[in-house]
Design goal:
With about 325 residues, this protein is of the alpha/beta class. It contains twelve helices and 13 strands. The radius of gyration is 19 Å and the shape is globular.
Protein backbone atom coordinates (compact mmCIF):
# COMPACT_ATOMS: atom_id res chain seq x y z
CA UNK A 1 0.00 0.00 0.00
CA UNK A 2 1.10 3.55 -0.76
CA UNK A 3 -0.20 6.61 1.09
CA UNK A 4 -0.12 10.20 -0.14
CA UNK A 5 -1.51 13.45 1.26
CA UNK A 6 -2.24 16.63 -0.69
CA UNK A 7 -3.66 20.04 0.16
CA UNK A 8 -6.66 21.32 -1.80
CA UNK A 9 -8.81 24.45 -1.71
CA UNK A 10 -12.49 24.82 -2.60
CA UNK A 11 -14.03 28.32 -2.80
CA UNK A 12 -17.13 29.07 -0.74
CA UNK A 13 -20.27 30.52 -2.28
CA UNK A 14 -20.11 33.33 0.31
CA UNK A 15 -17.96 34.17 3.32
CA UNK A 16 -18.63 31.88 6.27
CA UNK A 17 -18.45 33.67 9.62
CA UNK A 18 -18.50 32.33 13.18
CA UNK A 19 -17.60 34.03 16.46
CA UNK A 20 -13.93 33.04 16.02
CA UNK A 21 -13.46 34.44 12.50
CA UNK A 22 -14.34 34.22 8.81
CA UNK A 23 -13.26 32.17 5.80
CA UNK A 24 -13.85 32.33 2.06
CA UNK A 25 -12.54 28.89 1.11
CA UNK A 26 -12.50 25.35 2.44
CA UNK A 27 -8.87 24.27 2.81
CA UNK A 28 -8.72 20.51 3.13
CA UNK A 29 -6.26 17.64 3.06
CA UNK A 30 -6.94 14.62 0.87
CA UNK A 31 -5.36 11.28 1.71
CA UNK A 32 -5.12 8.66 -1.01
CA UNK A 33 -4.32 5.02 -0.25
CA UNK A 34 -3.47 2.79 -3.22
CA UNK A 35 -3.10 -0.98 -3.52
CA UNK A 36 -2.76 -2.78 -6.86
CA UNK A 37 -4.45 0.01 -8.79
CA UNK A 38 -7.36 0.42 -6.34
CA UNK A 39 -7.52 3.82 -4.62
CA UNK A 40 -9.29 4.86 -1.44
CA UNK A 41 -9.73 8.51 -0.47
CA UNK A 42 -10.42 10.43 2.71
CA UNK A 43 -10.64 14.10 3.57
CA UNK A 44 -9.99 16.11 6.69
CA UNK A 45 -10.21 19.77 7.64
CA UNK A 46 -7.42 20.83 10.03
CA UNK A 47 -8.92 23.17 12.62
CA UNK A 48 -7.01 25.98 14.29
CA UNK A 49 -9.22 25.70 17.40
CA UNK A 50 -7.46 22.38 18.05
CA UNK A 51 -4.02 23.73 17.13
CA UNK A 52 -4.13 22.02 13.73
CA UNK A 53 -2.83 23.48 10.47
CA UNK A 54 -2.51 22.02 6.99
CA UNK A 55 1.22 21.70 7.62
CA UNK A 56 1.01 20.13 11.07
CA UNK A 57 -1.59 17.55 10.03
CA UNK A 58 0.38 16.70 6.89
CA UNK A 59 3.44 16.18 9.09
CA UNK A 60 1.43 13.91 11.42
CA UNK A 61 0.38 11.72 8.53
CA UNK A 62 3.81 11.61 6.94
CA UNK A 63 5.38 10.67 10.29
CA UNK A 64 3.43 7.40 10.36
CA UNK A 65 3.23 6.86 6.60
CA UNK A 66 5.58 3.89 6.47
CA UNK A 67 3.92 2.23 9.45
CA UNK A 68 0.48 2.62 7.86
CA UNK A 69 1.74 1.30 4.54
CA UNK A 70 3.09 -1.79 6.31
CA UNK A 71 -0.21 -2.67 8.02
CA UNK A 72 -2.10 -5.79 7.10
CA UNK A 73 -5.55 -5.07 5.71
CA UNK A 74 -7.28 -6.87 8.59
CA UNK A 75 -5.59 -4.48 11.05
CA UNK A 76 -6.18 -1.16 9.29
CA UNK A 77 -8.98 0.32 11.39
CA UNK A 78 -7.83 -0.98 14.77
CA UNK A 79 -4.12 -0.23 14.30
CA UNK A 80 -4.62 3.43 13.41
CA UNK A 81 -5.75 4.27 16.94
CA UNK A 82 -2.27 3.30 18.14
CA UNK A 83 -0.51 5.36 15.49
CA UNK A 84 -2.45 8.64 15.47
CA UNK A 85 -4.45 10.49 18.15
CA UNK A 86 -8.06 11.56 17.60
CA UNK A 87 -8.15 14.45 15.16
CA UNK A 88 -8.01 15.43 11.53
CA UNK A 89 -4.96 13.35 10.57
CA UNK A 90 -6.43 10.06 11.73
CA UNK A 91 -9.78 10.94 10.19
CA UNK A 92 -8.41 11.31 6.67
CA UNK A 93 -6.35 8.11 6.89
CA UNK A 94 -9.14 6.09 8.52
CA UNK A 95 -11.68 7.11 5.88
CA UNK A 96 -9.22 6.51 3.03
CA UNK A 97 -8.52 3.01 4.31
CA UNK A 98 -12.23 2.28 4.74
CA UNK A 99 -12.82 3.38 1.15
CA UNK A 100 -9.90 1.31 -0.10
CA UNK A 101 -11.05 -1.80 1.76
CA UNK A 102 -14.50 -1.47 0.18
CA UNK A 103 -13.07 -1.11 -3.31
CA UNK A 104 -10.77 -4.11 -2.85
CA UNK A 105 -13.72 -6.20 -1.63
CA UNK A 106 -16.18 -4.92 -4.22
CA UNK A 107 -18.62 -4.08 -1.44
CA UNK A 108 -19.91 -0.94 0.27
CA UNK A 109 -18.48 0.29 3.56
CA UNK A 110 -21.78 -0.11 5.40
CA UNK A 111 -21.89 -3.78 4.42
CA UNK A 112 -18.36 -4.32 5.67
CA UNK A 113 -19.12 -2.57 8.99
CA UNK A 114 -22.33 -4.52 9.55
CA UNK A 115 -24.53 -1.42 9.19
CA UNK A 116 -28.00 -1.16 7.67
CA UNK A 117 -28.36 0.23 4.16
CA UNK A 118 -28.22 4.01 4.68
CA UNK A 119 -31.06 6.35 3.75
CA UNK A 120 -31.15 10.10 3.14
CA UNK A 121 -31.05 12.22 6.31
CA UNK A 122 -32.46 15.71 6.80
CA UNK A 123 -29.63 18.16 7.42
CA UNK A 124 -29.48 21.61 8.92
CA UNK A 125 -28.47 24.55 6.74
CA UNK A 126 -26.16 27.00 8.47
CA UNK A 127 -26.62 30.77 8.52
CA UNK A 128 -23.29 32.36 9.35
CA UNK A 129 -22.81 35.21 11.82
CA UNK A 130 -23.67 38.64 10.42
CA UNK A 131 -25.70 41.74 11.17
CA UNK A 132 -29.34 41.16 12.15
CA UNK A 133 -30.47 42.60 8.82
CA UNK A 134 -28.20 40.33 6.82
CA UNK A 135 -29.17 37.28 8.86
CA UNK A 136 -32.85 38.01 8.37
CA UNK A 137 -32.23 38.23 4.62
CA UNK A 138 -30.38 34.89 4.73
CA UNK A 139 -33.26 33.37 6.70
CA UNK A 140 -35.83 34.54 4.16
CA UNK A 141 -33.88 32.95 1.32
CA UNK A 142 -33.68 29.64 3.16
CA UNK A 143 -36.97 29.75 5.07
CA UNK A 144 -38.32 26.67 3.28
CA UNK A 145 -35.48 24.45 4.47
CA UNK A 146 -36.57 22.02 7.19
CA UNK A 147 -33.87 22.97 9.72
CA UNK A 148 -31.79 26.11 10.08
CA UNK A 149 -28.67 26.39 12.22
CA UNK A 150 -27.73 29.89 13.36
CA UNK A 151 -24.16 30.84 14.18
CA UNK A 152 -24.09 33.13 17.22
CA UNK A 153 -21.67 33.63 20.10
CA UNK A 154 -21.52 37.34 20.91
CA UNK A 155 -23.01 39.42 23.77
CA UNK A 156 -25.37 41.05 21.23
CA UNK A 157 -27.18 38.03 19.82
CA UNK A 158 -30.81 38.81 20.71
CA UNK A 159 -31.39 41.05 17.66
CA UNK A 160 -29.93 38.32 15.45
CA UNK A 161 -32.24 35.68 16.93
CA UNK A 162 -35.28 37.88 16.51
CA UNK A 163 -34.29 38.73 12.94
CA UNK A 164 -33.85 35.10 11.87
CA UNK A 165 -37.20 34.12 13.38
CA UNK A 166 -38.78 37.06 11.56
CA UNK A 167 -37.23 35.88 8.29
CA UNK A 168 -38.13 32.21 8.77
CA UNK A 169 -41.23 32.11 10.99
CA UNK A 170 -42.00 28.41 10.45
CA UNK A 171 -38.51 26.89 10.25
CA UNK A 172 -37.09 24.61 12.91
CA UNK A 173 -34.05 26.35 14.42
CA UNK A 174 -30.96 25.28 16.35
CA UNK A 175 -28.21 27.67 17.43
CA UNK A 176 -24.45 27.33 17.83
CA UNK A 177 -22.60 29.74 20.09
CA UNK A 178 -19.14 28.30 19.30
CA UNK A 179 -18.06 28.80 22.95
CA UNK A 180 -18.84 32.50 22.69
CA UNK A 181 -21.10 33.11 25.69
CA UNK A 182 -20.50 33.52 29.41
CA UNK A 183 -22.78 31.81 31.95
CA UNK A 184 -24.48 35.15 32.52
CA UNK A 185 -25.14 35.77 28.83
CA UNK A 186 -26.46 32.25 28.33
CA UNK A 187 -28.71 32.42 31.40
CA UNK A 188 -30.18 35.66 30.05
CA UNK A 189 -30.66 34.28 26.52
CA UNK A 190 -32.02 30.83 27.36
CA UNK A 191 -35.65 31.88 28.03
CA UNK A 192 -35.65 33.84 24.78
CA UNK A 193 -34.32 30.83 22.88
CA UNK A 194 -37.30 28.88 24.19
CA UNK A 195 -39.69 31.72 23.35
CA UNK A 196 -38.41 31.82 19.78
CA UNK A 197 -38.84 28.09 19.33
CA UNK A 198 -35.15 27.15 19.28
CA UNK A 199 -34.82 23.37 19.70
CA UNK A 200 -31.18 23.03 20.71
CA UNK A 201 -28.23 25.19 21.76
CA UNK A 202 -24.74 24.03 20.86
CA UNK A 203 -21.65 24.71 23.02
CA UNK A 204 -22.79 27.89 24.78
CA UNK A 205 -19.72 28.04 27.06
CA UNK A 206 -16.03 27.43 26.33
CA UNK A 207 -14.80 23.85 26.61
CA UNK A 208 -12.97 23.49 29.91
CA UNK A 209 -15.06 26.30 31.38
CA UNK A 210 -18.44 24.63 31.08
CA UNK A 211 -18.81 23.25 34.59
CA UNK A 212 -21.52 25.81 35.33
CA UNK A 213 -23.84 23.98 32.96
CA UNK A 214 -24.28 21.33 35.65
CA UNK A 215 -25.60 23.99 38.02
CA UNK A 216 -27.74 25.99 35.58
CA UNK A 217 -31.28 25.28 34.46
CA UNK A 218 -31.38 23.78 30.97
CA UNK A 219 -34.77 24.82 29.57
CA UNK A 220 -33.76 23.43 26.16
CA UNK A 221 -31.28 20.68 25.25
CA UNK A 222 -27.60 21.66 25.33
CA UNK A 223 -25.21 20.00 22.89
CA UNK A 224 -21.47 19.46 23.43
CA UNK A 225 -19.31 20.20 20.40
CA UNK A 226 -15.86 21.49 21.35
CA UNK A 227 -16.26 19.62 24.67
CA UNK A 228 -16.77 16.25 22.94
CA UNK A 229 -14.11 14.53 20.85
CA UNK A 230 -14.18 10.76 21.34
CA UNK A 231 -15.55 8.19 23.79
CA UNK A 232 -13.13 9.41 26.44
CA UNK A 233 -15.02 12.71 26.57
CA UNK A 234 -18.34 11.26 27.68
CA UNK A 235 -17.72 10.86 31.42
CA UNK A 236 -17.05 14.57 31.92
CA UNK A 237 -20.18 15.56 29.97
CA UNK A 238 -22.72 13.85 32.22
CA UNK A 239 -24.94 16.37 33.96
CA UNK A 240 -23.71 19.22 31.76
CA UNK A 241 -24.97 18.27 28.31
CA UNK A 242 -27.94 16.47 26.83
CA UNK A 243 -26.60 15.86 23.30
CA UNK A 244 -23.16 15.32 21.77
CA UNK A 245 -22.03 16.55 18.36
CA UNK A 246 -20.01 13.86 16.59
CA UNK A 247 -17.60 15.16 13.95
CA UNK A 248 -15.17 12.83 12.21
CA UNK A 249 -12.41 15.44 12.32
CA UNK A 250 -12.67 15.31 16.12
CA UNK A 251 -13.12 11.58 16.61
CA UNK A 252 -10.35 10.65 14.21
CA UNK A 253 -12.48 9.01 11.54
CA UNK A 254 -15.41 6.73 10.87
CA UNK A 255 -14.28 3.94 13.20
CA UNK A 256 -14.29 6.01 16.39
CA UNK A 257 -17.32 8.05 15.27
CA UNK A 258 -19.45 4.92 15.07
CA UNK A 259 -18.15 3.75 18.45
CA UNK A 260 -18.81 7.17 20.01
CA UNK A 261 -22.34 7.21 18.61
CA UNK A 262 -23.15 3.87 20.20
CA UNK A 263 -21.48 4.77 23.51
CA UNK A 264 -23.26 8.14 23.67
CA UNK A 265 -26.65 6.54 23.14
CA UNK A 266 -25.89 3.89 25.75
CA UNK A 267 -24.99 6.67 28.21
CA UNK A 268 -28.28 8.46 27.61
CA UNK A 269 -27.08 11.29 25.35
CA UNK A 270 -28.85 12.44 22.23
CA UNK A 271 -26.77 12.39 19.05
CA UNK A 272 -25.97 15.12 16.58
CA UNK A 273 -23.65 14.49 13.62
CA UNK A 274 -21.85 17.57 12.36
CA UNK A 275 -19.02 18.63 10.10
CA UNK A 276 -16.34 21.17 9.41
CA UNK A 277 -16.63 23.18 6.18
CA UNK A 278 -15.51 20.53 3.72
CA UNK A 279 -16.50 18.78 0.52
CA UNK A 280 -18.76 15.83 -0.24
CA UNK A 281 -15.81 13.50 0.36
CA UNK A 282 -15.73 14.56 4.02
CA UNK A 283 -19.52 14.28 4.41
CA UNK A 284 -19.87 10.82 2.82
CA UNK A 285 -18.66 8.73 5.78
CA UNK A 286 -20.49 11.04 8.20
CA UNK A 287 -23.79 10.17 6.48
CA UNK A 288 -23.33 6.61 7.75
CA UNK A 289 -22.86 7.86 11.32
CA UNK A 290 -25.89 10.15 10.93
CA UNK A 291 -28.37 7.32 10.41
CA UNK A 292 -30.94 7.67 13.17
CA UNK A 293 -29.30 10.77 14.68
CA UNK A 294 -31.46 13.30 16.50
CA UNK A 295 -29.88 16.19 14.59
CA UNK A 296 -27.74 16.24 11.46
CA UNK A 297 -25.57 19.12 10.28
CA UNK A 298 -23.81 17.94 7.12
CA UNK A 299 -24.29 20.99 4.93
CA UNK A 300 -20.62 21.65 4.07
CA UNK A 301 -21.06 21.07 0.32
CA UNK A 302 -24.07 23.41 0.24
CA UNK A 303 -21.75 26.23 1.32
CA UNK A 304 -19.26 25.64 -1.53
CA UNK A 305 -19.09 27.37 -4.88
CA UNK A 306 -17.51 24.20 -6.30
CA UNK A 307 -17.54 20.63 -4.97
CA UNK A 308 -15.81 17.39 -5.96
CA UNK A 309 -16.84 15.13 -8.81
CA UNK A 310 -19.62 12.66 -7.95
CA UNK A 311 -20.81 15.06 -5.25
CA UNK A 312 -23.44 14.07 -2.71
CA UNK A 313 -27.04 14.68 -3.70
CA UNK A 314 -29.13 17.08 -1.62
CA UNK A 315 -32.89 17.41 -2.12
CA UNK A 316 -36.10 17.63 -0.12
CA UNK A 317 -35.35 14.23 1.45
CA UNK A 318 -32.02 15.53 2.76
CA UNK A 319 -28.48 14.44 1.99
CA UNK A 320 -28.27 11.09 0.24
CA UNK A 321 -25.62 8.39 0.80
CA UNK A 322 -22.61 8.62 -1.49
CA UNK A 323 -22.13 6.87 -4.79
CA UNK A 324 -19.28 4.35 -4.76
CA UNK A 325 -17.45 6.59 -7.23
CA UNK A 326 -17.09 9.25 -4.53
CA UNK A 327 -16.48 7.13 -1.42
CA UNK A 328 -17.34 3.87 0.27
Amino acid sequence: MKISVTSESFPLARAFVISRGARTEARVLTVRAVVDGSEGCGECVPYARYDETLESVTAQIEAVQRQVEALEESDWAEALAGLLPPGAARNAVDCALADLAAKLAGRRVWEMRGLAVPAPVVTAFTLSLDTPEAMEAQARVHAARPLLKIKLGTPDDMPRLEAVRQGAPRARIIVDANEGWTPEVYADLAPHLVRLGVELVEQPLPAGQDGMLAEMARPLPVCADESCHDRGSLVALKGRYDVVNIKLDKTGGLTEALALRDAARAAGFGVMVGCMVGTSLAMAPAVLVAQGADYVDLDGPLLLAKDRAHALRYDTAGVHPSEAALWG
